[in-house]
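User: Sorry, what's this?
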Amino acid sequence: MGVTFQLNPVNTNPEGLSVLSYNVHLLSYAKPGGDRKTVTKNITKWLKDNPSDIKCFQEFYQDFTTPAQNAIKALATDTGYEYSYQIIEGNPRKRSYGMVIFSRYPIINEGRVFDTKRNNGVIFADIKVDKDTIRIYNAHLESMSIPSEGLSDLDGIKENYRETLSKLKRGQVIRATQLGVLVEHMSNSPYANVLVGDFNDVPYSYTYFSLRKIMKNAFETAGRGFGFTYNKVLFFLRIDNIFYDEILQIERFKTHKEVDYSDHYPISATFSWEKSLRKVAIVEEE
C-alpha cells in the first residue's frame, strides 16, 4: 500500500485543529459545456459552509471592483476569518490572483517563501491557537503542464508524448529548486509546521520522497483508498498533499471527491497535539 493506497480507520468525530487545502481554479472552473457562473456560486457556497479552522487556497482570484466577486469579503471578512493574502499577478486594488490562508485564529506573522509570477509560490502564516503557535505553509509548486485535453485517447497520447515528457522533465527540475528553498525555510521555523497545497508531483517523485523524509503525509497516516486529487482526464493523479511535523497527531484526513467545482478535489486534515509546538525555547526578559 504505502504512498499509493491506504485503508486507515475513519475517525467520524475528530477533535482538534482542522485544515483545508484546495486549488480553486480562480473560482471559475467549468467543464466543456458547463456554466461558470453556476460553478462560482456553488464553490463559493461550499467554501463558506466548510467548517475548517484554517483554509488554504491556490489559484485564488480576488476582484475588489465587483461586489459579487469579492471573494475575500465573502469567504473571510463576512465569516469570521483573519487572512493572509499574497498576490502573484494583477492589481492589488482591483483584480488579482495568488494564494491565501484564511484562519479563525489570530495570524501573528505571515509572509512569502517565494513566488514565480506565474501562478506558483509558497506562503506561510504563524497562527496562534490558544497557548500554542503553529506555522502553516501553503504551496503551489511548478505546474506539470500536461495537456490533458489532448490525452483523451491513444492517438492523443502518441501525438503529445514527446512534448509532454519534455514538460515533465522541465517541471521536475524547477520543482527540485523550489523544494530546496522551501525545506530550508521550514528548517528555520520556530514552530511545528503543516505544509499543504498543490505540489504538481506524484508519489514516488523526488519532491514527494524528499518531503516524506522530514515530515509525515496525512493521506498515508489517515487516508483511505487511492486519494486521487486531480479532476480531469488524468484522474489517477494524487498531486495535492498535506504534510506535517511528527510532533502533531493526525485525527482525520479526507479527500472530498464529492466536490466537483475545480480541476482539483479539496483535501482536509484534523490535528491535535500534547506537547508545545515551539521548537526554540522562549527566553524570558529580565
